[in-house]
Design goal:
Layout: E1 5-10, H1 14-25, E2 30-34, H2 57-69, E3 74-77, E4 80-85, E5 96-100, E6 105-113, E7 117-120, E8 135-136, H3 139-142, E9 151-155, H4 160-168, E10 174-178, H5 186-195, E11 198-201, E12 204-210, E13 213-219, E14 224-226, E15 229-231, E16 235-238, E17 251-255, E18 258-263, E19 277-279, H6 290-323
Parallel strand pairs: 1-2, 1-6, 2-3, 6-19, 8-15, 9-10, 9-15, 10-11
Antiparallel strand pairs: 4-5, 5-6, 7-16, 12-13, 13-14, 17-18
This protein binds flavin-adenine dinucleotide.
């Protein structure tokens, strides 16, 4: 059993640590519980993160934890597996109790959910093993690293053709694998021709690796296409397993009519529909990058502090009223 804390932060990635940082600096008691599986954990480096460009994901988290710890924030390794709402202090009606996979429990006045997203990948043998390394999804995250290399683009969504052009911007050696002709129109094909992008029609049967290195793909007819990288799209699903007791429900995320994953609905500060619970980072915004997730964590942390300031004010006024002789008022 951990001490009752002002704020429980679920997840210690960029979003959770940034929330904890602003809360710790505001002298709130904070416990960060982190299962230690960042979404980008397979990648060699975090890119587009100003000030720490290219740091490995777990290294960046370590740096963040050290920074946050200096403000008294506490950490627990593990996973929140259950949580429920109900007061945990005498003078605040809002509160939560959560259980860790270790069996320990923590009571908190507020919760920031920063548990990230889980990528659901195209079902091609060999693809998952290369995710984040030879198999890439984001030209901004990985494009520079595969510049001028042989890049395959596995088109499994209506955005695939656009993605192919994004990858073409970093390499002249792009091959598009059109698994479903309905996903690529005449204009897309004309664009591919104009940019010198090769087109292969039909399913990709397997992603090939030699040890740790992606080497190509196998087509339905058994022929192989040598590659240095394969771009593929995932859907990013909010990691909310074990958090249903908080009353949170993830909603489908769409771009146009294409489903790209799921996320917790939040307002501008990260407040969820459940009073006392905020969400930040990929759990609320599947397309948010690391720096954007960090910013969302900061915003949520600041809002939680503001909410606690107001709750403390209400409690202080009630205590003052209780001490005031009948007939007089403190207000
Ligand atoms: C392969 C890959 C490469 C990427 N590269 C880049 C890049 O170069 N630059 C960039 O800006 N973005 C990149 N991204 C996106 C990046 O991963 C996200 O923007 C970022 O991870 C979001 O941060 P977060 O704090 O919301 O979640 P995460 O970093 O995923 O952190 C969430 C944490 O919460 C923990 N957790 C989950 N559930 C629980 C629970 N119930 N209890 C306790 N802990 C829990 C997880 O284990 C994890 O440690 C990449 C994504 C992928 C898939």
């Amino acid at each position: 059993m951990y001490d009752t804390t002002d704020v429980l932060v679920i997840g210690g990635g960029a979003a959770g640590l940034s929330a904890a940082l602003v809360l710790g600096r505001s002298r709130r008691s904070v416990l960060v519980v982190d299962a230690g599986e960042p979404r980008n954990g397979a990648a060699a480096g975090v890119h587009n993160y100003l000030g720490r460009e290219g740091t490995d994901p777990r290294g960046l988290a370590r740096i963040g934890r050290d920074e946050v710890a200096q403000y008294g924030v506490r950490f627990a390794s593990g996973r929140i597996v259950d949580a429920s709402a109900g007061p945990v202090t005498a003078d605040d009606p809002v509160g939560f109790t959560a259980t860790l996979d270790s069996g320990g429990t923590v009571a908190a006045r507020r919760v920031v959910v920063a548990s990230g997203a889980r990528d659901v990948l195209p079902d091609v043998p060999g693809l998952a093993a290369q995710w984040g390394r030879g198999v890439v999804h984001c030209p901004f995250c990985h494009g520079w690293e595969v510049r001028d290399r042989r890049i395959g683009v596995l088109v499994t969504t209506p955005f695939g053709a656009h993605q192919a052009l994004m990858w073409r911007a970093v390499s002249a050696h792009v091959t598009v694998f059109v698994t479903d002709p309905a996903l690529v129109g005449e204009r897309d094909l004309a664009g591919f021709r104009a940019h010198g992008i090769d087109v292969v029609r039909g399913p990709v049967r397997e992603v090939l690796s030699d040890g740790d290195v992606l080497t190509g793909v196998v087509l339905a007819d058994g022929s192989t296409v040598p590659l240095d990288a394969l771009a593929a799209a995932s859907t990013a699903e909010a990691r909310v397993t074990g958090l249903a007791g908080l009353g949170l429900v993830a909603a489908d995320q769409t771009v146009g009519d294409v489903r790209i994953g799921s996320a917790l609905p939040v307002g501008p500060t990260g407040a969820t529909d459940v009073p006392g619970v905020w969400a930040a980072g990929n759990v609320a915004a599947p397309m948010a990058t690391v720096i954007v997730s960090a910013a969302a964590g900061t915003t949520a942390g600041a809002a939680v502090h503001g909410d606690l300031v107001q709750a403390d004010l209400v409690a202080a006024l009630a205590r003052a009223d209780a001490r005031t002789p009948a007939g007089q008022s403190t207000r």
